[in-house]
Design goal:
CATH superfamily of the largest domain: Transcription elongation factor, GreA/GreB, C-terminal domain
Structural class: alpha/beta
Number of helices: 3
CATH class of the largest domain: Alpha Beta
Helix content: 40-55%
Radius of gyration: 21 Å
Distance between the termini: 34 Å
CATH topology of the largest domain: Chitinase A, domain 3
Largest sheet: 5 strands, mixed
Number of domains: 2
Order of helices and strands: EHHEEEEHEE
Amino acid sequence: MNQEVIYLTKEGHALMQQELERAEKTLYEEIPEKLKASKLNGGDLRENKEYMYLQSQQEYYEREVRRLTSILERAEILSDDAIAKDVIGLGTRFILQDLTQKESGSFTLVSPAEVDLENGKISVASPVGRLLLGKKEGDHVTAKFPWGASRFRVIALNR
């Protein structure tokens, strides 16, 4: 099994720990209760759709607990000192303007394990993330997408 270090922000580590706790609660407390009730009320288990659904949910949560546990076991939390102040790097918060769409937003460059596009967390391994590495305030990058190219400008770096 690949045991390379996974770098997480403090916030990302805390969120992943909460996710693991929720998944463990679901897997070890909620699903067994529901399975027991379904088994008692459902008759033949081969035809009990609720029981089969709960088994598939149990398998999903088993995988999720293993995934999150593996990440957290290999995680190294980025200290504030390790986050670059003058260039974009892992853990850096920044404001990026899309010059094509004339819109801007606040983003954080994170490891692939911590990606959350809805909350502006871009993977350092993504095409745009790789383009932004090492960029400073005022720098421009052009990202090529299947639908065309977009130009971006780094407006500001936040710590």
